[in-house]
């Protein structure tokens, strides 16, 4: 076992100089991890979590791991958690609460003590359970690689071994461990697979754990190759427009499976619902889906990706003496004589007749039902129709600001001024508003 362990450590790039934090619960798997690392002469320390879920049993686990570390002269770290309260406050299961709490603490320890890696005791049977869980819940290729041997600062150095082989090795040594009574309960999905599904599958294939581990390695290799090929196509598929990322659908549709390509790129922004992305591809323009951090909009022949923004105040007041506005947008404002003034051609500058304005002006987001009189056009026009004529996306509409005087639209900022406020032959004073982009 130790020779296989050292061989696997070498395979995943560990050296004796590597400083590793071992996560040890006191169960058979984690105690095997502890003794294998200690016997092999690695630089290690131990972290133990007391989730206070099993009363004296939890405290007994803590004492057992501490005593083992003291006997082996290994530094021991322990933290108590109020797991049930965290679960209620965050609205997550006890299992998810425990997972969040322990990995957050492990990462704090890693940074504080400058560990190179955090090692967990996941083995081949855990790999099988994870794959079966992913398949039962729904997964793409990413879910098929299961537990990776190395992922960021996380290590799983026992993926070479099955649970049965670890048991045999521990039984051949004078090493002790403690059994967690919650592992027997089948109220958890993982335990149902462990106790009810795996025994049947192992009757079909006694080498099931090893077979699954080999499969996950193949899936991981396939995913790496596919990601490499997709990343080479990124520049052909995406256009960067300011803070927005535009996925060109005409390029995407050249692939045999456009949804797979879209999912590869979009999932990194928190969009993990395959069906929702697939439906968006075939939806009408204007449809949108959300992740925790981003918005994804179908806009004609593109998917537009944008970071969610906090809602700003609805209106901003601009008095006559204001020369600059930095929030919510950057505007420069000033007056000058209309005599000899040449009207700028830029849509980012509004040249208005000062005497037609009533201060303070109001800067606000556009609203449904807004109407103005676009310069150069006869009569009035709905602002929503104006946006449609300009083929503006939903994001562009949402980001549009309106400058108003006495409730009347003066300027659709960056686009068009209102006919009623334009300069005429007898204008005396020009009020200039410049959008600083």
Describe it.
This protein is of the alpha+beta class and 437 residues long. It folds into three domains: 2-206, HUPs (Rossmann fold); 233-307, 2-Layer Sandwich (Uridine Diphospho-n-acetylenolpyruvylglucosamine Reductase, domain 3); 315-435, Phenylalanyl-tRNA Synthetase, Chain B, domain 3. It has 16 helices and 22 strands. It has helices at residues 2-11, 28-39, 56-72, 83-90, 94-113, 124-137, 141-144, 163-171, 189-204, 208-232, 234-237, 249-252, 258-266, 274-281, 383-389, 394-398; strands at residues 19-23, 43-50, 76-80, 117-119, 150-151, 154-155, 238-241, 244-248, 288-290, 294-299, 302-307, 315-318, 324-325, 331-337, 349-353, 361-365, 371-372, 381-382, 401-405, 408-412, 416-417, 429-435. A six-stranded mixed sheet has the order 3-2-1-4-6-5, sandwiched between helices. The radius of gyration is 32 Å and the shape is elongated. The model has no long low-confidence stretch (mean pLDDT 89).
Short description:
The protein has 437 residues and is α+β, with helices and mostly antiparallel strands. Helix content is 39%, strand content 22%. It has a 6-stranded mixed β-sheet with strand order 3-2-1-4-6-5, with helices on both faces.
**Could you name the CATH topology of the largest domain?**
Rossmann fold
Q: Report the end-to-end length measured between terminal Cα atoms.
A: 65 Å
Inertia-based shape? elongated
Q: Look at the structure and give the CATH class of the largest domain.
A: Alpha Beta
Global mean pLDDT: 89
Q: Quick one: how many beta strands?
A: 22
Total of domains: 3
What is the CATH superfamily classification of the largest domain?
HUPs
Low-pLDDT ranges = none
